[in-house]
Amino acid sequence: MLFFVIALSVILVVLLTAVFKVHPFLSLLIGAFFMGIASGMPLADVVLNVNEGFGGLMTNIGIVIVAGTIIGVILEKSGAAYRMAEVVLRLIGEKRPQLAMSIIGFIVSIPVFCDSGFIILSSLRKALARRAKVSMASMSVALATGLYATHTLVPPTPGPIAAAGNLGAENYLGTIILIGLVVAIPAAVVGYLWAVKVAAKIEVPDDTLEDGELSYEEVIKSFGKMPSTFKAFLPIVLPLVLIGAGSVAGILGGDGGLTSLLKFLGSPTVALLFGVLAALLLLPKWNEETLSGWIGEGIVGAAPILLITGAGGAFGRVISNSGVADLIAGMDMTALAGGSLFLLIPFIIAAALKTAQGSSTAALVITSTLMAPLLPTLGIEGAVPLALVVMAIGAGAMTVSHVNDSFFWVITQFTGMKVTEAYKAQTMATLLQGVTTIVFTMILWTILV
């Protein structure tokens, strides 16, 4: 009966978001209260668990999410994202434009949301496609799938961070970042191959040159004075290095001064705040417009993510304390424990949620809250196993992007693709990305766990 109540609460959340278009924050809160009351939890405990679940998750990852969105806004507005794109183009060469766009998307989407990344790089995508004389649809899918790969798998993107927090893996972000970068590579490669083999055959209105359209050189020049390569990459690289060093220090152990310092600097909150400080070097001027306006825009952008993530934490806490953990503990889980087939459970749940309601972040948050009580019972703990569970959830959150996903409409509107063409080019690409990612994650589980 308890599992039936959990299923009903999840269905309620999906119906509210997908059918009635209620904001995921309210949907998750309503689902949390429904779950608590329907499971027979005392009413006072329902309120207590909702409050503690919301606040507990914010304690671990709230500042991290805000810092990540601030970095993303500064990278976008300062021209650093364009500088990174230009560097990648020089390294890869303009003879492989789709590969260049895929790698650009892969890097930019680590701190910047994939929707925003596609928009800010759209003029560069069009100009490079003209110069290389390749299909606009091909370039668009290459960029979109590169963005999508890291968006669902690599912190400090909010979705994977939220999943890590719900699973109790916030102290293993270094491992999650490393494994996420590895797992995202085959996902990006599959997207790139689909772009050059299938999407390249699709013709869109953008393939016709319009009067007054800027060339590649003019687009680069229009960005104005861009920051140096070092300054452009520093806000992304510095936090990743610090988190990685902190993870290594934690594995090696010890209580020495250097170890303690590395653990402090490598804590996600401190590492991302150093990333924000590094991003301040990109500001063209230190004035109210940048120090208050740009940073304020990042904070505003973080608000809905924080609310959705916190509501997901509340939902998860109610589920965890509803008695489901004890129920699971009394069940025979030997068929699932220790095998990579277990990863199909979070993958299927996340894929169903993603397909139904469109948001990858919501799919990551909800699925991780559902999986959290199950993991201790199966003995799944530690950095690598929990990181791979996050990857399995992220794989499901890729599957698939279609008409209820804002990213789908960004791509169609900025490329002129018809919906049927976008289903063939983008939706099928994300399906292949999700399937490839879960297969690769299961292989890694077999090798590493």
From TrEMBL:
Positions of transmembrane segments: 28-50, 57-75, 99-122, 134-154, 174-195, 232-252, 264-283, 295-315, 335-353, 360-380, 386-411, 431-448
Q: Which Pfam families match?
A: GntP_permease
Residues forming coiled coils: none
Q: Which InterPro entries match?
A: Glcn_transporter
Instruction: Provide this UniProt record's keywords sorted from A to Z.
Output: Membrane, Transmembrane, Transmembrane helix
Q: What is this protein called?
A: Gluconate transporter
Organism the protein comes from: Planococcus kocurii
Instruction: Supply the source organism's classification.
Output: Bacteria, Bacillati, Bacillota, Bacilli, Bacillales
